[in-house]
Amino acid sequence: MTVKVCMGNEAIALGALAAGVSVAAGYPGTPSTEIIETLAHLHRPGVSVQWSVNEKAALEVAAGAAYAGARSLCTMKQVGLNVASDPLMSLSYIGVKGGMVIAVADDPGPWSSQTEQDTRGFAKHANLPVFDPSSPEEAYMMVRTAYEFSEKYSLPVFMRPTTRVCHASADVELSEPAEIKKPGGFERRPEWCIFPALSYRRHGELEVKQYEMARDFDSMPYNRIEGSGRKGVAVSGVSYLYAKEAVSELGADVALYKAGTPYPLPEKMTKDFLASVDSVLVIEELDPVVEEQLLIEAAGKVPVLGKRSGDMPKNGEYSFEIVKEALIKYLALPQPQPEKEAEALPQLPVRPPVLCAGCPHRASFYAAKVASKGFKKSVYCGDIGCYTLGNAAPLNMVDTCLCMGAGITLAQGIALADKDATCFAFIGDSTFFHTGIPGVINAVYQGTDITMIVLDNHTTAMTGHQPHPGTGKRADGSGAPALDIETLLRACGVEHVSNVDPFDFPATVKAIKEAAEFQGVSAVIARAPCIAQIKKPATVRFVNNGCIKCGRCVAEIGCPAITPDNTGLAVINAPLCTDCGLCAFVCPVSAIERGERNAD
Known about the structure:
This protein is of the alpha/beta class. The protein folds into 4 domains: 2-217, Thiamin diphosphate (ThDP)-binding fold, Pyr/PP domains (Rossmann fold); 223-330, Rossmann fold (3-Layer(aba) Sandwich); 360-533, Thiamin diphosphate (ThDP)-binding fold, Pyr/PP domains (Rossmann fold, 3-Layer(aba) Sandwich); 539-596, Alpha-Beta Plaits. Helices cover 36% and strands 17% of the residues. The chain has 19 helices and 22 strands. It has a 6-stranded parallel β-sheet, sandwiched between helices. A 5-stranded mixed β-sheet has the order 9-11-10-12-13, with helices on both faces. A 5-stranded parallel β-sheet has the order 14-15-16-18-17, with helices on both faces. The two termini are 47 Å apart. 50% of the residues are buried.
């Protein structure tokens, strides 16, 4: 047994190895990404690790491995579960042979997501059990238990770490990785093919399993009641740590019910807890999953307070301070008085995220903005990735952003409903492979007049530069066929396709204008590597004495490397500058020149 400081995601990956996982598939998405990255980095013999093209593909790959008797792992963030939901709902009916864990990282806040959706509710919808770790240490232990539970019930099992658990670090006691057992292999079974008659029968069996699993959860160490006060507090996930610390600090006498498996709740433990208290405050992030189950079980005999009663926030991430305040109110404790007046701290400035200095997406957006001048009405449909930041001033080039791959299809709907609009759809290279291609096919099939601009920076930049089918690399670093976006577009029937370097500004403007004027589906592929993956050149840009203080270089492209001084003179921050040259195209008096970068 060794002790290692582990991030929560790393602990989940190491727990899966300790459980004998042999196939792991996922799609990168904060806060889940490091699970697959850890497995890929370790290169454990006998363990197949992949970044799949999207979450649906990842879940189906992991399910196939589990059909053949292997222990498999599928990872994603909460919005990725929407993409994987189609196979998931049927898989819960069909079941698995080998253990299968679906690690879905939720993002209360949200910090880096479109939604705050709660995977525990999804688990209930799919009739699948869910483990909700409160710490990296518990996540490590839980994932191993989850595999055993999965094989016992022949069902996939959810692991639901949240951002604080995924990215927190702690000392974790590690076991030696388990020997990977050779799976029995795929065996033909009638139940591998889902048909209505089988679905009807399996649904009934699945409902019965909910009660069996609830009884089984009674004996798990992740579920327990601490203390014996008449005031009850029920917690799930990382809220347990907040509540435990707050109870200790307040010296409160409460019965603390830790629900490490929030769906289904342990049967006997839940009954015993409700029978031992006069009231309950439920503390859980996002949906009232535990709260609603306790309300049903209490049947009005014990007051259950929480989100529905307005005693806990209904959205957002919890903190120690939020939990402590809720407990003080619930327990009717006096507000603690500060020992001395704390010095007021200055308010921190708001720092919204921006595209990096030298980001090729900025050049593509600005070129499209210039190219579309003169059109009666232009609509810019965005997508999920770094380039979503193109919505900010001064670019203002993202009018819509719904979900992965939706920019192309939203543009089609807008073009059909608004005949005055010239519709542009921006999509990144990784997102193009993820869910963009079906939208392309639909546009060609329906003959809808839109222009796609594929922002190809050769990586999945937003989540940490993971490879994708167009990069020529796999998760483990090995070589792979690099799928060509232009070839795919033409194979889908797009007739007008051009390739540009977005930093060749005149050529990019010309290509986008020609594409927009083409009647039908057109595409421009703007190819330039992510600036974070290349070395800075030996040259930079500087402002010469010809600057007329017009401010266009600052006001039109919003590059963080260019700011005005207190006289209005443009100043380029050399350490940030990547010599992309976009600012030189914007300057009306050629006051921006190239120079040597200082050695320091």
